[in-house]
Amino acid sequence: MVLLRYYSVLQRTTPVPLYYKVLLQYYSVLQSTTPVLLCTTQYYSSTTLYYKVLRQYYSVLQGTTPVLLQYYKVLRQYYSSTTLYYKELRQYNNVLRQNYKVLLHYYSSTTKYYSSTTPVLQSITPRLLCTTLYYKESRQYYKVLLQYY
């Protein structure tokens, strides 16, 4: 529309050769600006698609943010409770280590005691058996004596 008006004004006001010169200049301007306009149009179409994707992503973020915040709160509570549990486990571990040292000491001392008493027990065992047998017999003899007495 604008070109038609421009054309009609040019036809009425300028001679024909000058008219062609102006048209040629206009044509050269169109040739130089057309690639830029095409590029801009392509850029606009690609950014429009990108904008649509961004809007969808934004709506997804709006929907998921409250859920993520609740999940974050739960995770923080879980972290604080597990931190306390970890501290208690460390204290319990320290107690176990101390008890282990005591038990190890007790074991080594009883092992020494056992190794020192084993020879004595081996030498006394036959005598104890004899004494037990003697005690049984003397007990029977004592019962018989009590009946006569």
The helix-strand sequence is HH
| End-to-end distance | 156 Å
Summed up, the helix count is: 2
Helix content: over 70%
Let me know the average pLDDT.
Answer: 81
Low-confidence segments, given as residue ranges, are none
What percent of residues are in strands? under 5%
In this structure, how is the largest beta sheet organized?
Answer: none
What is Rg? 55 Å
SS class: mainly alpha
Properties at a glance:
97% helix; 149 residues
Q: What's the arrangement of secondary structure elements?
A:
Elements: H1 2-13, H2 16-148
What does this protein structure show overall?
The protein has helices at residues 2-13, 16-148. With 149 residues, it is mainly α. The protein has one domain (2-148). The longest helix is centred in the middle third of the chain and has 133 residues, at 16-148. The radius of gyration is 55 Å and the shape is rod-shaped. The termini are far apart.
Summarize the structure.
The chain is mainly alpha-helical.
